[in-house]
DNA sequence: GATGAATGAGATTTCATTCAT
DNA sequence: GATGAATGAAATCTCATTCAT
């Protein structure tokens, strides 16, 4: 079901989701799920695919996770925590100028979508595969992230620093475009990571009508 | 596999993809596939789901389409044709001012993503489910659409009408954000279709640094 | 289901089974069935395979034959008629010497299994696919052919010309071996058709203990 | 698909193919496959037929065998191993006289085709159902068996013990006829197993022109 | 009389998950 | 706690056959 390359056994642990305290098998399974699901999607990835990408068996997976769905929830949840945390940290470190603040969170958002590209991809495209209880949790965090952007943009408009007539739409415009980075970004592509960040900052500021 | 609501039989025919000359069953199947796959994705939608949403049986589906994969290819291909055609028509009708031209194609792009929301959703999120031969075709059309935007933005920069320092990235920024409309748009939401269009035109022009 | 080579449309009509009076379509279908079933067996050949090897559609097949099973019966029945007729003719033309008579029917049997190789193959290996009514008919003709051999061998033993102590077993030994020709014979192989015939005659005579 | 009688559960374990070390379920499935396929052929036997003849479900079959095709390969391969081994053992135990040697391998060949009648039947008639990789393996073993006979017959001719002018054809004549035993033999028929063996030995010796 | 659509059963195979050991 | 077997439902797709036109 899963193409050849996803079956390799030695999966470099996607460090973002693995914390030292975790049991290594559970972490390997989560990492394998990221690998496999990023390529084939939730419904296109079988429990056997995931388990064997982690070098174990389905039975082991069920020892660590309640279900395939549970694995997805954990995966999305952690991914969003990373994103939210990075964005909040950026705000904490930024000064008061709305342009600086928007630039900082664009940078955070873009960097996470490059560094944890696969988790981000899954968190975006597999929302529909989430069942009710987990979905609510994930949607809530997703909305929280959006509201962080909304607030910064509104503040900028209120202060006159940004001139856009449509702050909420501009805010969504920006997060959507920056989230899309996970779709096309390839490490080693024509732009360095810093290039990508710089340009997205610049364009985002333009998009809110911020003559720098 | 597919939740109850996706099984309803009364599917408003997604007129964009159905031409009067088509055999009605084949068209109904295509329409049903759009309905079902937009909700559950390609791998999450069974052939039985699709067939019964069209009021027939899997065997009938295989009489009209080579495979489930073939159905997806047809669906994506037609969807992109609609998008490309709309964008090209918009350029043909637009005047020479780069701002008008960009506004026109943003409008076309956004309208297609609202009018044919489900096809657009599938065409975007199920690229990975496409197998080699069909995938190339679809990717080619997708790239063609992007290049239409790239050219307009570059022209605007060359003529001095747009001031962005990163025309290609801005171009992708804009298409990504406008494509995302299919993700969140709900008919009858707080904004009219015209509102959505107007605001995206405005933000897109800001994003390329076009003081109007 | 059927490998590539069996799908070609231009099937040289296997003249043995086609008589000038037949409707050409019915004959083409029979010929196609021989082609396809010889390669894939009855259960391995679909009605669609057969029809398209004949350049038509399943519906046409059902216009000419009652069912797939009916086609098989017709095919086996005609094949055995050819075999029986050839063997009887050989006996009619042969002189009184048992050695000549056995030689003559071995030649007839072997020639039919080379000339109508595919029909013979099917007639032998698809007996089990025949359902009750047709099966009886075919088995009866098969037994009749065996009895022709049995009688010749017994006559030879009675007259002292053959010395085998086991005439019936020798008879079956010979028909089994000669029927097997259809299994391995390839036109253009190392032996000419006449070689094959000559050698089988000689060995068969040895097998009944006939010092020539 | 398979008629009633083939569905009975009480299958006498075909001990030839079942070794004590085997997992019982895998062995039962192999035994059931032999039963069912001997009656209906490979394409005429469904995975469900086989599984339920073994008292399990298709899913269990796929836990033990890669595919229906894989089951066939295993079955043919083991059957031919038994045949080859029996023939080689017979040669090892036989004295130097070519007549004894031919008699010994005819006996071995015939006995295997009576004792493991169904495996032999399948191994002979389902060669065409074997797909490329497995087919080569099976054909190779089949050829090896033929060569054992060829060598014995040639030796007999070289030493002057056999007088046939066509050793290779006589050799094939004999194996074909002896293989055919699996086609008509019924336990409890008019001849005892020893009778069948004795008579085939005698006729085979006649067929190579061996005046005893 | 010929053709394309339809049909309902059934084909092989895979699924997520559980259970003994 | 870990493993291989088992399970029953469901996956995609094909079957022989019939029916309108």
TrEMBL record, chains A, B, C, D:
Keyword rRNA-binding appears in the UniProt entry: no
Span of domain HTH tetR-type: 23-83
Tree of life domain: Bacteria
Alphabetical UniProt keywords: DNA-binding
Segments of the chain annotated as binding DNA: 46-65
One Pfam family, short name: TetR_C_24
Chain segments annotated as coiled-coil in the UniProt record: none
Annotated spans, Disordered: 1-22
Matches recorded under InterPro entries: Homeodomain-like_sf, HTH-type_TetR-like_transc_reg, HTH_TetR, KstR2_TetR_C, Tet_transcr_reg_TetR-rel_C_sf
PANTHER family: HTH-TYPE TRANSCRIPTIONAL REGULATOR RUTR (PTHR30055), TRANSCRIPTIONAL REPRESSOR MCE3R (PTHR30055:SF237)
Protein name listed in UniProt: TetR family transcriptional regulator
